[in-house]
Amino acid sequence: MALDDLGRLAPDLHSLGWTSDHDSWAAGLDGNPEILGRVARVSRGYSLVFTDGDAVMAASSSTHTRTDLAPATGDFVAIQDDQDDGPYIADISPRASALVRRASGRVPEPQVLAANIDLVFVMHGLDRPVNLRRIERQLVISWDSGAQPVILLTKSDVAEDRDTTVASVVDIAGDVPVIAMSTVTGEGVDQMEALLTGQTTAAMFGLSGIGKSTLVNLLSGGVVQRTGEVRAADRRGRHTTVTRDLIPIPDRGLIIDTPGIREIGLWQSYEGMERTFPLIEAAAATCRFADCYHNEEPGCGVRSALNDGTIADDRVDHWKELRAELELQEEQLDEFERRMESRARADAERQRDGERQTKRPSNRDRRQQDTRRKANRRQGRGRRKH
Ligand SMILES: Nc1nc2c(ncn2[C@@H]2O[C@H](COP(=O)(O)OP(=O)(O)OP(=O)(O)O)[C@@H](O)[C@H]2O)c(=O)[nH]1
Ligand SMILES: [Mg+2]
Ligand SMILES: [Zn+2]
To answer: What is the Rg, in whole angstroms, of the alpha carbon atoms belonging to the chain?
Structure first.
């Protein structure tokens, strides 16, 4: 089957990033998976899956799929063919990495932007003022994904004050590479391309209109993604890309092009905060009080690092803001789980023949439950967040 308008053939499993680990996973599945592949795009109820040299639309339904996960672009999957309903995703391989943000809305829920990635391109357009706080947020999420972040500063051909801007980004980037590039002049393209080798999968992560899809087209050597103008007045993009698409780049691995993202809510960060703010985290670890607010408390490591000039004010302010956001989310999650549990309890009680249980849980019971819940959630860390 031709994969795109260029008439190129669909890649084989190996070129899709399939490894011997996935073979072992597939060998251990119940039943005999009929088709193996990688999710290239998720639509409502269906996913486009690249298979060995072909592509198939497979249903992803909660009744059929033998996992709690919903498929995300980049997932490795096993497909079964149902006599009546056609192909469906029966199993999803555990994710080696995943780029996850907090879904918008009040209920604390994760949203997977891309799965099984090696690199995250944290992208920002030099045609507008740089927002360092935004880049920090992106870095936290990228580090937490388990993949390596790389900062791409696009549209260097139209940058104002380019050197100052690039230097300010390098300043907060730590060890993360920063590449200034342009699809117009070609600056930085080789450097970026050199990061994509063989089976590498990279996810693009940035605002609308910064040239993500234009870059994909340049690397593909043809038009595979639609691109759109930005509004002249405020440089805003028009959300041209609306799905998260896995795109094979011949001989260079795969790129996941994503719709521009404005809101970047953190989702349960563990490593990400430490990797993004190493000096601040190290200073905070020396505070006399474990629950130090880093304001006027005696023996505060953060204040003393600020006084030394080892860390910067604006970064500390943002770090505090992100820490507070994560803490609030923990509380919301606790509250949410408590509510779910009490609802489940109420349902169970109602089912018992009219006989209502009157004993309410004591505060001690509740505290024990909280501790257990937190311990469970921490165990989720090692597994990578889905
Ligand atoms: N000057 C300049 N313009 C560029 C460059 N790269 C892309 N553009 C233009 O920027 C506009 C937006 O490009 P897209 O590739 O559609 O941006 P996107 O990030 O994919 O946007 P969404 O799909 O909406 O998230 C188009 O008009 C491109 O021609 C560049 O390096 N320099
Ligand atoms: Mg796009
Ligand atoms: Zn402190």
So the answer is: 23
For residue 158, the ligand closest to its alpha carbon is 1
> The CATH number of 14-92 is which of 3.30.565.10, 3.40.50.720, 2.40.50.140, 1.20.120.450?
2.40.50.140
For residue range 85-104, list pLDDT tens digits in order: 889 999 999 999 999 999 98
Query: Which one has a higher pLDDT value, 363 or 122?
Result: 122
The closest-lying atom of ligand 1 relative to the alpha carbon of residue 260 is 25
Which amino acids bring their CB within 6 angstroms of ligand 1? 154-155, 157-158, 182-184, 208-214, 227-230, 237-241, 259-260
Specify the domain boundaries for CATH 1.10.40.50 within the chain. Answer: 271-378
271-378 is a CATH 1.10.40.50 domain: yes
pLDDT over 60 at 322, yes or no? yes
pLDDT at 359: 54
CATH 3.40.50.300 location in the chain: 98-257
With CA atoms as reference, report the closest residue to 301 among 321, 277, 281.
281
Q: Write out the residue limits of the CATH 2.40.50.140 domain(s) in the chain.
A: 14-92
What CATH number does the domain located at 98-257 have? Answer: 3.40.50.300
Q: How far apart are the CA of 369 and the centre of ligand 1, in A?
A: 50
- Nearest ligand 1 atom to alpha carbon 259: 25
Question: What's the token pair of residue 297?
Answer: 């408390």
Exposed/middle/buried for residue 29 (C-beta within 10 Å: 0-12, 13-18, 19+): middle
Nearest CA to ligand 1 atom 14: 211
Give the residue, by CA position, lying nearest to ligand 1 atom 30.
Answer: 155
How do residues 171-220 score in pLDDT, each as one tens digit? 999 999 999 999 999 999 999 999 998 889 999 999 999 999 999 999 98
Query: Does the structure show a pLDDT above 50 at 255?
Result: yes
Return the residue whose CA atom lies nearest to atom 6 of ligand 1. 211
Contact 134, 123 (CB under 8 A): no
* Residue in 176, 189, 186 with CA at minimum distance from that of residue 140: 176
